[in-house]
Amino acid sequence: MKSMNTRSLIFGATASIALGLVLPPRAAGAISDSDFNSLSNLVQQLNERVQALEQTHARDQQVHARDQQQIRQMQQQLGQTQVAVTNAIQQAQAAAQVQPTVPVPSGPSASHNFTMVGDAEVQYGKVDGSHGSFGLADFAPIFLYRAGDDILFEAGFDTTLSDNRPGSTDPGASTSFDLSFGQLDYLLNDYVTLVGGYMLLPLGTYTERSAGWLNKIPDDPLPRGVLPSNGAGVQLRGSVPMGQTGQMVTYSVYGVNGPSSADGTANADQLDLDSNVGFDSNGNRLNLHGSPSGGGRIGWFYPFKPHYDLELGVSGQSGTWDDADQHLWSAAVIDAAVHISPYVELKGEYINSWAETADSGTIHPRGWWVQGGYKLAGLNLDLPVINNVELVGRYDTVNDGLGTKTDRYTVGYVYYFTDTLLFEGDYEFPSSNDPDQAHNQYVFQLSYGF
Amino acid sequence: MKRLGSFKWRLRTGALVALVTAAALGASLTLVIGANTKPEKKAGNKQQTVAKADPKPVSHKTARKAKKKVVKRLSGATLYAINCNRCHPERYPTEWTASQWKTIMMHMRVRANLPAVQARAILRYLQADAGQ
Q1: pLDDT at A290
Q2: Does residue A272 sit in the same domain as residue A408?
C-alpha cells in the first residue's frame, strides 16, 4: 500500500509539472502571479514529500532484506535442530532395545558362587614369671559355597602353628588344622532356615561373634569355658521382623549330640563339653550316649536408630552326658548388648550350668562377664591417631563348680589401621584361689578380617 | 528305680526342648500374623514412604487415621548401618562383586538371624555399588 501511495504521488506531481510546462502561453498568461507562486510552492512541497517517501521506501527495503536473511538463517537452524532431535530419538530407542530400563551393576548374580571370607591373627603375649613369645599364628578362613538361591554350605577352619615340646620325640613345630564349623544351610522360607552339620551353638551370642577381628579383647571371657561352643546336629533358626523399624525377634532351636564323658563315667572331672561329634579318633561311628541334647535361643533386637540399639536373649541346652544316659547336663545363658552412639558399646552374658555327677552330686559351673568399649573418635578431637583408638575393658568371673573361683579385670585398646586391620593390646589382672591361674599377663594381637 | 530315674531325665530334657521350641515357634507365629512383613516389590536406597491408597473420598477423620498409618520403610543403607555395625565395622560395597555379596549376605542372614526382608534390602544396597 505504501508503495502504491508513493507511486500515485509521484505520478500526480509529475503530471502537474508536465501540465504546467505544456500548457499554451495563453493559459500561462491567464493565471496571476500569486496563483503561479502558490502552485510553484505546492509543486515544491510535493517534490520534498516524494523525496521523503523515496527515502522511507529505501529504508523499508533494507529492513525487509535483513528480515528475509534472518528468516532464512532461522529456518536453517530449525532444520539442524530437527535433525539433531531425530538422531537423539533414534539413538535412545536403539539404546533402550539393548539395555534394560533399570541399570544392573554387573548383570545377574551367578546362581552358584564360591567365596572365601575369614580372619587371620598374630599374637604376642607374656605371662608374669615366664618369657614373652609369639604365641599364636592363626589363619581362619570361612569357605562359602552358594548353590542356588536357598542353599549355602559354609565351613570355618582354624589353622594354627605351635612348637612341639623340647625333648619330645618329634621336635620342631606342628600345624593344626581344625574344623570350627561345617554346616549346610537351607532357607526353607523367609522365617525358617534349616541348618545341619557341625555348628556353632547359639548359647548366648559370643560363640557366633567371636572371630579374632570381632573380639576387641584377644582372650575369651572366662565363663565361656563352662559351655560347649560347637555341636553336631540339626537346627532350625530364623527371625521375624516387627513392623518397619528394624525391630525383630530371633530364634534358634537345635538338637545335637551334646556333651559327653571322657571315660564314659559320670564322674565330675570327666565332663567333656566339646567332643561327641559322632566319630572316634579311629574314624569309627560312635554314639557316646543314647539321648541327644536339645537347646535353643530366643532374642529380641530393638534399634532406636542406626548405632543406637538394644539386644536381649535367653538360651539354654539340656541332655544327658554320661554313656549310661543317667546324668543330665544343662545350661542357661542370658545375654545383652547395647550400643549408644557409634562410639559406645556394652555387652555381657550371665551363664549358669548344672551337671549331675556320680561322685559330686550336682555341680554348678557358672559365671558372668561384662565388657565395654569406647571409641575415642567420639571426643571429636580431630586427631588421626587418637580417632583410630578404641579403649576396652572387661570384668569376667567363673566358678568351675569344683571349688575353683577366678575373677579377672582386663583393660586394653584396639587401634584401627583400617576397618579390618586391627592392632589390639590388653593387660589382664586375674585373681583366683588356684595359684596357677592368678598370673597377670599382657597380650598383643594383630588381626585382619577378610 | 534306675528306669524311673532315666525316665525322669528324659522327661526333663524333653520338656525343656519342647518349652524352648514352643516358645520360639509360638512367638514367631504370633509375630508373623501381627507384623506387616509383606515382601518389598520395589527397592530403593532412599527412605520410602508407604501408605495404602484409598480411591474413595476421605473425611478429615479418615485422612488423619491414614496419616497415622503412614510408615517409613527403612532403606537398605539404614538397615546395613543398624545390623552389620553391631558386630563388625561396615564393609565397603565395592569390596565384593554382586554375586559374592549374594553369597555373603546369605551367610550373614543365617549367622546373624537377619529377617529375609531386611537381608534382601541390604543386598540390594550392596549390589548397587558392588565391585566388578
Answers
A1: 77
A2: yes
pLDDT at residue A113 is higher than 80: yes
Asked if A447 and A421 count as a contact pair (C-beta separation under 8 A), the reply is yes
Complex ipTM = 0.73
Task: Identify the weakest region by mean pLDDT among A117-131, A164-178, A384-398, A412-426.
Answer: A164-178
What element of type H or E holds A43?
A: helix A33-98
* Segments forming the whole domain that contains residue A53: 2-98
Judgement on whether residues A71 and A198 belong to the same structural domain of the protein: no
Residues B59 and B21 in one domain: no
| B86:A337 CB<8 A | yes
Residues of chain A neighbouring B121 (CB-CB closer than 8 A): none
Model-wide pTM > 0.80: no
Q: What is the identity of the amino acid at B2?
A: K
Chain A CB contacts of B6 below 8 Å: 325-326
- Cβ–Cβ below 8 Å for B5 and A195: no
Contact B13 A320 (CB under 8 A): yes
A405: cell is 573361683
Together in a domain, A27 and A175: no
Chain A residues touching residue B106 (CB < 8 angstroms): 144, 146, 152, 185, 187
Which residues of chain A lie closer than 8 angstroms to B132, CB-CB?
106
Please identify among residues 51-70 of chain B the ones whose CB lies closer than 8 Å to any CB of chain A. Answer: none
Rounded to 5 degrees, what angle do the CA atoms A426, A428, A429 make?
150
SS (H, E, C) A367-415: EEEEEEEEEHHHHCCCCHHHHCEEEEEEEEEEECCCCCEEEEEEEEEEE
* Residue A443: per-residue pLDDT: 95
- What pLDDT is attached to residue A218? 93
Using the 3D structure, point to which of A78, A98, A118 is the last residue of a domain. A98
How many domains does chain A contain in total? 2
Q: Do A154 and B107 touch (CB under 8 A)?
A: yes
